[in-house]
Amino acid sequence: MSKDEHFKPAYQPAGGWGSVKAVTSMLLKEGAAINGSRILLHQNKPDGFACVSCAWAKPAHPHPFEFCSNGAQATAWEITSKRVPPDFFLRHTATELEGWSDHALEEEGRLTSPLRWDAATDKYLEVSWQQAFDEIGAELKKLAPQSAVFYTSGRASLETSYMYQLLARMYGCNNLPDSSNMCHESTSVALPETIGVPIGTVALDDFEQTDCVFFFGQNVGTNSPRMLHQLQEARKRGVPVITFNPLRERGLVSFTNPQDPAQMLTADETGISTQYHQLKAGGDSAALMGLCKFLVEWDDAAQQAGRARVLDERFLAQHTHGHAEFLEAVRGWRWEDIERESGLARKALEMAAGAYANARAVIGIYGMGLTQHKKGVQNVQMLCNLLLLKGNIGKPGAGICPVRGHSNVQGQRTVGITEKPELAPLDRLEKQYGFRAPREKGLATVEACEGILSGEVKAFVSLGGNFVRAAPETALLEAAWRRLRLSVQIATKLNRSHVLHGEVAFILPCLGRIEIDRQAGGEQSVSIEDSTGHMHGSRGVAEPAADSLLSEPAIVAGIARALLPPNPKLDWEKWVGDYSLIRDAIAETYPDIFHGFNERMWRPGGFARPIAARKREWKTKTGKANFIVPEALNENPDMAEPADVLRLFTLRSDGQFNTTVYHHDDRFRGVYGTRMVLLLNLADMARLGLAEGDRVTAATHASDGVARSVAGLRITPYDIPQGCAAGYFPECNPLIPLWHHAEESMVPAAKAISIRLTRMEAP
Ligand SMILES: Nc1nc2c(c(=O)[nH]1)N[C@H]1C(S)=C(S)[C@@H](COP(=O)(O)OP(=O)(O)OC[C@H]3O[C@@H](n4cnc5c(=O)[nH]c(N)nc54)[C@H](O)[C@@H]3O)O[C@H]1N2
Ligand SMILES: Nc1nc2c(c(=O)[nH]1)N[C@H]1C(S)=C(S)[C@@H](COP(=O)(O)OP(=O)(O)OC[C@H]3O[C@@H](n4cnc5c(=O)[nH]c(N)nc54)[C@H](O)[C@@H]3O)O[C@H]1N2
Ligand SMILES: [Mo]
Fold first, then answer.
1. Measuring from each residue's beta carbon to the nearest atom of ligand 2, which residues come in under 6 Å?
2. Measuring CA to CA, which residue among 214, 370, 358, 213 is closest to residue 294?
3. Residue 181 scores a pLDDT above 70
4. 181: CA distance to ligand 2 center in Å?
5. All domains of the chain, ordered by start, with CATH?
6. What is the pLDDT of residue 256?
């Protein structure tokens, strides 16, 4: 154990002094203390910038400090005073940088100049913007459009995203995978089929009216901490919060509000979860089935005894389709199967079902614990089934609430970033811009990986993100990544997807959202959509990290002008001069959502897009909300699990934003100084002959002939169900086979991977 590594049980509540300390030390470390605290006052304010961290809703009446320690951390990371000037690359070859950690690469600071990799010296060398655009355009013109991929990470604004999808489509492909292909795509596939909308139905005011909150596989304290405000208010009103999560997460257990001085001084903790069910990873469909089974049994008994019904009979009859089949299927599932697959006792499920039955209005919140499974779509649909049983969709205080990840990941889909041509208004785009839009299905993330592995994908353009670290099958993917003809990275900070590169490779550094964006028409603002379908304006407040940076819209336009023939209906240059023209164009393509875009974007709390299911209008094939009967309750059907195999799920720590590792501590889980850990149940440790501190190699248990392993993981005992193991994302990504993904949505099944452990000899 290195001297910096230590482990202690986490005792502090989420929020509280811990977060204040974390904010201050991050600002100091990034050399941004004075400026930083001024800038933070503008975070998530109606006239300021939308936080670059999570996508949680921004209230109309924000707190004076409407940010969490993680949002502040993300801000400090972006406005850092550290820079990566071109001479950094004269000192380090790309091959040398491959040896650097995720943290070390990004820690160098903000990229400042456009760079082109030079084969003779193995170094990235400075080029002019025009040269970069011209060469990228020339390379892409040589390729068949189907062999190029235009990936987006969920941070880019609505304006940039709209331009980017136009660029790809005018070039000739729908290859527009998005980080949401690894994230909430299970939601985007599940919800249209069941309730006729691709997004959640809950708005902030529903939290004020709810009676009960169910929480599945979302780590609010780390990943969407501002939601703790709504949860804490609800708890003060006595609203039960019922959590299903294999780990006891601090943020779901208790919370001290750092904006409430009285609570800070007394260290008074509000308990968040009133029930905490530590189910087996991948046990959610079974647990949800158990809840439904109790409700149906109680309802059957009530009918027999002539008492009031437990289910919402009128809602079922008037608004749903397939309820009779679903109730019949529920009656048929056996308790022993439900208990085995969920890892929960029937008694525990009864308690949770009781709280549900007693509530007038229930919100179902969920995150990656549901979506990143082989049965990810089914999981989301099972949660819908539960909510529908008592009419908990489309009434005040109730609804389904997927917690989106990146700050504009939902919005990118709204303005056309999708590989599925049927989800983009292609006819309208054709008319608006006078071109023939490609109609072939494009590549989703997993398919893009397959294409890279097979060599069919030859060019990869990345609007943000860190694809080779975020995707599964790391070893094969990294090797294939080097065989790309062209890699183009539009980015703020250096990461592994840049230092590994194609034959022709560019890094194009861009402004971040927090920075002032000066264009021909003056200072520009952008917009984003939050998790609850509200659109917000965002105005940068910090001085740009370097004069040589271009904005994301300017970079997309630069590539477009080099690549595409001139088009009398589209003046990219004019758009870059004045982003309100891009918003006018968006409003023309999507009038229902974006009419009056420029006027409405500064409304406090944002403007809401129409969500039909909120009004109990069901835009489904049946015209009703559909119950969907699950096929099976086992969530890991494609990976065998003999007795010595564990089910691994991958996690985010308090010190990271996805592949951006701010530091190596996870204060809520008591892990300090390292991320190379494996959290295990003590009984499993005893059974497998492992002791705390042992170093192990984890190897994927699969019979496809590919060896996948991660060495050097430290065994750390933890409160986790037997048979499960937890490790960090992205360190554990080499263990995920590319074929191990959700059935309909193709989201990599990062929350259930069969692994076997071998102890490493002490050095
Ligand atoms: N600070 C910070 N904020 C972030 C991010 C970040 O990295 N750092 N990432 C952003 C992004 S892109 C996203 S998508 C979101 C992700 O936010 P979350 O949806 O919270 O995702 P994870 O942290 O991957 O895991 C969520 C929780 O699922 C639990 N879990 C694991 N397996 C299962 C299971 O089978 N069933 C159940 N019920 N629970 C399970 C884990 O214990 C964990 O508490 O956060 C966003 N916000
Ligand atoms: N095992 C496992 N794998 C997972 C997950 C998991 O839970 N487990 N989660 C998945 C999920 S939910 C997601 S969303 C993906 C995340 O996948 P990505 O979105 O691809 O990855 P990020 O780590 O968010 O990208 C970080 C990089 O974005 C760039 N960047 C930051 N800000 C900006 C900006 O303003 N503009 C531009 N152009 N670039 C910027 C920086 O260069 C930074 O290095 O990972 C997925 N992978
Ligand atoms: Mo995500």
1. 106, 153-155, 179, 182-183, 368, 372, 405-406, 463-467, 470, 490-493, 495, 510, 512-513, 552, 650, 658-660, 729-730, 732-733, 736, 750
2. 358
3. yes
4. 12
5. 6-78 (no CATH), 84-183+408-595 (3.40.50.740), 186-406 (3.40.228.10), 646-759 (2.40.40.20)
6. 62
